[in-house]
Amino acid sequence: MSDEHQSKPASSSIVAANEAVLRHFPFDDTQDLDDARRGFVATGSDPVVRDDAGTAVWDLGAYAFLDQGCPETANPSLWRQSRLCAEHGLFEVTEGIYQVRGYDLSNVTFVEGDTGVFVIDPLLGVDTAAAALALYRAHRGERPVTGVLYTHSHVDHFGGVKGMVTQEQVDAGLPVYAPHGFMEHAVSENVMAGTAMSRRAAYMYGAALPKGERGQIGTGLGQTTSNGAVSLIAPTVDITRTGQTATVDGVRMVFQLTPGTEAPAELNIHFPDHRALCMAENATHNLHNLLTLRGAEVRNPHDWSRYLTEAITLYGDHSDVAFASHHWPVWGRERVAAFLGEQSDLYAYLHDQTLRLLNLGHTPLEIAELLEVPPALERAWHTHGYYGSVSHNTKAVYQRYLGWFDGNPAHLWEHPPVQASRRYVRFMGGPDEVVRRARESFDEGDFRWVAQVVNHVVFAHPDHVEARALQADALEQLGYGSENGTWRNFYLTGAFELRQGSVGTPTATNSPDILGALTLEQLLDSLAVRVNGPAAWDARVTVRWHLTAGPVVTMWLRNGVLTHVAGDGPATLAPDVEITLDEATLRAVLLGTLPPIDLAAHGVGVTGDLAKLTELLGHLDAPDPDFAIVTP
Q1: pTM recorded for the entire structure
Q2: Helices and strands: H and E segment counts in the chain
């Protein structure tokens, strides 16, 4: 492999910065390590989890290198966090509650009942979930699953469900619990903008990076995302209010709804008989994201803090342990209250101080540099920005209140990246001169500036070999120094792609189960965002669907916009074609698995010009799961 394609050692300035981290924080504090190992029962005998075809989807031994001392190419604080997250196996939380940790990005929790076991958050992948259940049963007996609960609407907390139960079991009465709004958010997040999110998630989680001291060492929240199949079974029981209770197989639960916190639909669970509090993903051993780098709706830190305080008020005096669907538990009533209180203060501080600073006229970039958390919070390891960060969370708060515009009219109508970069590079003396001067900045350790300025050369002259190599080197150094796992992964994946080409999208979340869970309205909406508007400006197509066991649906393409309504629509609409079919066949047509030309063979009734349907579908673009990020 040529030198420009290889990773480089840490520079002297990064080595010095990482050594300063070692001196600044209490690395002799072993409380988290003790907690992460407490209750250990066993781990799997085979470290590799495989799918039915024999393909490896998870490797428990991939992070064994973390047992060594922290190298110069990693921030010691992140290395410590990754080492803790790498603890894997079956753990007892308290009598009757167990977790399998380290088998995916998230944890799965097993709560033992009178005859079986109740499952909370069945991981991301079907295969890792099945392996986790097998590990549990190997040490706790062949207990049947008596119910499932999704704490929130992110795929790493429901995607493995079919590795633990079947749709037939649920149809026969096995309950599946979820917070109100779960299906809407779980499905829409993974479909409407799912392609872009998945591509960016490849950067965020670094799943395609080599694992090792110069590569991926974790995400801060867990190690990475598993590969393999993602599934979904729709909930059968809706949790609609705080204080709602349920008992499954003798397991008593009290729910706290927390919408708009870490997910749009989320809940916490108190187990009064176990004096245990499940905090879902609302209180984990890191500062979480207010706006995840893969992209999502901006979260509300004010409400997040308020719900954490409410949890302390409602359950603090009745909880001897708090656990979550990531990381390790906290034991002891006083420690639980302190942990939740510090988490609450952390989100409230970021919210309130960002607003104070923006009301003083500071911009997002300025606030990100100005705001520091109080020393008392910084001393608590669980407030560190391993997954979220103060820098990008303050920008998220600004965006939530004021949007993308910082108020400076010079930023109101800027050139897009390629056009701006060509002008910058021309003004700065051409690409070779920019690279020459950037090398001086690199030698001075100003990697942020190198990445910012050389990015213009890469976008203006994407084939400039020296610029691409220097940009990769700068991103790599920034990754080596980052305390944040997702920042490190973004930087190192960017460097990897500049050197070796695209990593693609290792884990796709628009699985058949998720697509099948779309309501018909959501499915039609998902088509509308695929219309190539300019190509369809002059198209005029109206299609009327007559469902054999449902309503009439009319859809029309006009002015580059695909609109749909239940019923015949406006009186001025004259359908070009009317089609009578069942909903399953309609879904097949809309998802592209059944071409219009084959409708007659399926006994579908067609009146009018079927070619107009083909024309309409021809205006839909296929999303690009491999779009460029660090190059134009």
Answers
A1: 0.97
A2: 21, 21
